[in-house]
Amino acid sequence: MSRDTALQDLLDKQAITEVLQRYSRTLDWLDDEGQAGCYWPDAHIDYGFFTGSAAEFVPVVMAIERASQRRWHLLSTPAIRFDSADHAEVECYGMATGIRQQDDGTWSGGLYGGRYLDAFERRTGENGAEWRIARRRYIMDWKTPLDDQPSNEPNPDFPLPVLQIIASGHADYRRM
User: Are 57 and 45 in contact (CB under 8 A)?
Assistant: First the structure.
């Protein structure tokens, strides 16, 4: 492999990794436009409960995320294999949580672990040539309940702020 080819592979891997980071951030901050920008609109999406195009999926997943007062997605470093200059197979592990206030006033939710089996394509979009998800299959490997979560008020014995994102446009959100 030439030095130029190796350098281009590194640049492409970084671009793909940044799409995956943006995927998590835009879910957590309820950024619909940013979430849609992670996929090509015609990308085939299969989450089990949903199979269809990314254009159809984004409103569905964002509605699910809005049902939680707190959410958090963390993805592993991806494994990336290039099939061509403009196509890559990508796999990474993920953990996600959703916390909401229950009818009795307590806070609880779940922690989920799974893997993302993706195909990325570099196409020409509004911003020139860019990498986005062209196909995604999500597999959930495990889940566990998260009971007795902190309320929105900081604990006086350990007064850390609690971030509650219940709508798009949170004051702390920064486009990256």
Answer: yes
Which residue type sits at 87? Answer: H
Model pLDDT for residues 54-76, shown as the tens digit of each residue: 999 999 999 999 999 889 999 99
What confidence score (pLDDT) does residue 150 get?
77
pLDDT in the model for residue 160: 77
Which CATH code, of 3.40.50.12780, 3.40.30.10, 3.90.1150.10, 3.10.450.50, is assigned to 3-149?
3.10.450.50
> How far, in Å, CA of 22 to CA of 175, rounded?
10
